[in-house]
Amino acid sequence: MKIKRTLLLVSLIAALAQSAYAADIESSDTSFTVTGTETAGAEVRLSIFDKAGKMLWIDSQKAGEDGKYSFSFEFDKPDEKAEYDLYLNGASQKLILPGNADAMQEIAAASDDTALEAKLLEYADRFGYDFADWQSVSAGQQSVRNSIFKTQLSSDGVKKAYMSAVGIAKFNDAAVSKDRGAAETALVKFGDDIGVTVTADKAGALTNTQFGNLIVKMMSKTYTTQSEFRTAYTTARTDVTAVTENGGGGGNGGGKVTGGSSTASTSSPAIVGAPVEKTEPFTDLDEVDWAKDSILSLYNKGIVSGKGYKTFAPNDDVKREEFVAMLVRMLGLEATESVDFTDVAEDAWYKAAVDAAFENGIISGISETSFGSGMPVTREDCAVICKNVLELYGAELSEESAEAFADDEYIADYAKKAVYQMRNAGVISGVGNNSFSPKSPCSRAMAAKIIDMLGGMV
């Protein structure tokens, strides 16, 4: 199973003795393979975490009749040396990747635009970008593209600088040709790397009308720097926001609250946004028929929106701030206090949602000072948030269960009680084979189903 597109591995260093990790790890220019022998038919689980503890990949399989198993996976090679932790049925081993410093130096040293283009083509597979995007920029925008890339390279790294430069140049092309569809495509594909909140805005922070108006406002000119583009996006976003955004979510612990006092209602709050008749706005919901009604219900209430023309992207991951914002809109919570998380800027679109969530005890940060902005919300964290919501509204929850999940040992201690309470309440079930997959990200379809269900219970 692949995590990302490519890996050029120069060296692999085992940090623990092989006796503690009974498997063989082989590497090629493009992949790792982990093989070993277990009891015939035994379940084998392998998971990979980065140095910050974020799960990047998890898979399981049963050993064959001969007891053998094999996992294959790939990474994007990091710009700098990176360290990963592999866990095989609980035993751990470290992988250290040397990074892409050599390639970055060659790209930065390119003597002219022709040499730069040749180096970018040479290293396209290594860094995981599509060189066709670079070539598709019009002649009139190539100098802007090259200038932005060179300016951002040292601070952003190769891939992010590449995506930012290409994205702004392609948006400029769309603005010049007055092609709104192409402008939206460029924003959606490259916006995150440019550093604007397009993913969150498409996920529901803005309505479809507001987002469309934002694009039109931005298309009134072209841009020559990343900072200019970011400022224009922020200004346009402020202009098209008709009302103050409501936010919510919450938690126990983490962060410093300042000012005011909590006024959270213990009765069911009103739903934000009057229902609007919008039928069949998306064409990609057939694959998630189990969540379709919930998605359309939330869409018609203005709680969620699509990520492109008639596209909901139901299988995309939901970031922590996106889940909190959608949940708060549904609950109608408002903040009277401000929580001090270092990764939630005062002007962040989801700031009010995080404040309301924390104030009402629905969410917490990943540490005393960090909320975890930009990280996918995991299934076990979804369970904790849902439990906190139901408790806020006075629900009595039971954690009694006839059978533990097969992967119970992988459920974090802080989430275990909530996982079983939410299973018993019918809010979050397993993923099949009596597994819960606690570290897996929650998808947009799953989030919509959960939030719609909670709306009917509070």
How many domains? The number is 3
Number of strands: 9
Overall geometry: globular
Percent of residues in helices comes to 25-40%
Structure description:
- The chain has 458 residues and is of the alpha+beta class.
- The chain has 3 domains: 18-97, Immunoglobulin-like; 101-240, no CATH class; 257-455, no CATH class.
- Helices cover 40% and strands 11% of the residues.
- It has helices spanning 101-108, 113-122, 124-127, 131-135, 142-156, 158-177, 180-194, 198-205, 208-218, 226-240, 289-300, 320-331, 351-359, 379-392, 413-425, 444-455, and strands at residues 24-27, 32-37, 43-50, 55-62, 68-73, 82-88, 91-97, 257-258, 338-339.
- The strands form 3 sheets. The protein has a 4-stranded antiparallel β-sheet with strand order 4-3-6-7, with no helix packed on it. Strands 1-2-5 form a 3-stranded antiparallel β-sheet, with no helix packed on it.
- Strand 3 (43-50) and strand 4 form a beta hairpin.
- Helix 5 runs antiparallel to helix 6 (158-177) and helix 6 (158-177) packs antiparallel against helix 7.
- It is globular, with a radius of gyration of 24 Å.
